[in-house]
Design goal:
Elements lengths: L1 E6 L7 E7 L9 H15 L7 E4 L9 E7 L19 E8 L2 E9 L2 H6 L1 H24 L10 E3 L7 H13 L7 E5 L3 H4 L5 E2 L13 E5 L2 E5 L13 E7 L3 E6 L11 E7 L2 E10 L4 E14 L13 E6 L2
Parallel strand pairs: 3-13, 7-17, 8-11
Antiparallel strand pairs: 1-2, 2-14, 4-5, 6-16, 8-12, 9-10, 10-11, 12-17, 13-16, 14-15, 15-16
Helix pairs in contact: 1-3
């Protein structure tokens, strides 16, 4: 059965979900409730995942499969002369192959499913922890993509602090590539790193008319600035912090639904999508622990697109701003 589900719950905004289900013999368990909460909490806690180009399609895949994601060419404005045809352009560009290299899960037991479902706060307690675990993993992989940009797209060193000059240097590289002005982002590990940077405007100075996304701490020179502490996990032996400056189209984050379990396996499942990210939820009764076992998992792949070594497209709009810690 395939249908649309609109779910409103405490702490979660109104969102649209695409849902696929199997026949369910666990009549007391409401899988859509648990899965929708997991996705809501994932989006509240994943910073990088919400800033990059997300791609989700209802195509069943497995770990290690490769999917092709459509990207689009830049278009140019052509002069139209009288009595001449328009200049036709090809908007659809190459398809970028992305390997689904990551299958991550969070599994736990719930002894009193009915009691939990009667109080949304209890469901939230379980699903918040599962979603945060998956968000930490996804964002850690995304922030590590600095390693795929090359030295020509690096500014600063591990011996320098974050400065306006570094930001302007990275900005110039993006401008020379004619990267669009919308969806430009800077991600740093900590708000404090930006406080001494000239012309940085913190959120409390932006005014009430400016929309603030999760994790956003301010703006500078047309870039929205975000805090993502997962960057700390990437500090190497040399001590360099790899802050990221990028356009949304510089990184692809691809999720695909995993197969549902066989109908006679004793395990049931659904998969659900919200805002470009898809999760699978599996549930079964564990006779050893007399509890319902719940697994939330995600199959995904990440790729830097428009990589500097592929000059047939153009350089990746992704800058590694190296600073000290």
């Amino acid at each position: 059965m395939k249908n649309k589900l609109w779910f409103i719950g405490e702490h979660a905004p109104l969102s649209s979900y695409t849902l696929n289900t199997q026949a369910d013999s666990h009549s007391d368990f409401i899988p859509t409730l648990w899965a929708s909460r997991a996705l809501a909490f994932f989006h509240q806690n994943a910073i990088m995942a919400g800033l990059v180009n997300q791609d989700y399609k209802q195509e069943i895949q497995n770990l290690g499969d490769t999917v092709n994601v459509q990207i689009f060419n830049n278009l140019v404005a052509n002069t139209k002369l009288p009595d001449t045809p328009v200049t036709k352009q090809t908007a659809q560009g190459k398809k970028v192959p992305v390997t689904l290299s990551y299958h991550k899960e969070a599994t736990f037991l719930v002894e009193d499913v009915l009691g939990a479902q009667a109080k949304l706060d209890i469901v939230d307690g379980y699903m918040r922890k599962a979603a945060i675990a998956l968000a930490n993993d996804v964002d850690s992989v995304l922030t590590a993509q600095y390693a795929n940009v090359g030295t020509s797209m690096t500014v600063g060193t591990g011996a320098t602090a974050m400065t306006e000059a570094l930001i302007l240097s990275g900005r110039r590289k993006l401008n020379m590539m004619e990267v669009p002005y919308e969806d430009r982002h800077i991600v740093v590990p900590d708000f404090e790193d930006m406080l001494k940077v000239d012309r940085f405007t913190a959120n409390d100075k932006l005014g009430s008319s400016v929309a603030i996304r999760t994790g956003q701490i301010g703006m500078i020179h047309g870039f929205r600035v975000y805090e993502d502490p997962r960057i700390w996990n990437l500090v190497g032996s040399g001590g360099a912090v790899h802050n990221l400056m990028f356009h949304r189209d510089g990184i692809l984050f691809v999720t695909r639904p995993l197969p549902l379990p066989p109908a006679d396996s004793g395990t049931k499942g659904i998969y659900m999508e919200m805002d470009g990210v898809g999760f699978r939820l599996l549930y079964s009764y564990d006779n050893d622990y007399l509890a319902t076992k719940i697994t939330v998992d995600v199959l995904y792949g990440v790729k830097v697109v428009h990589h500097p070594t592929d000059q047939t497209i153009y350089k990746a709009p992704l800058i590694d701003i190296q600073t000290n810690n």
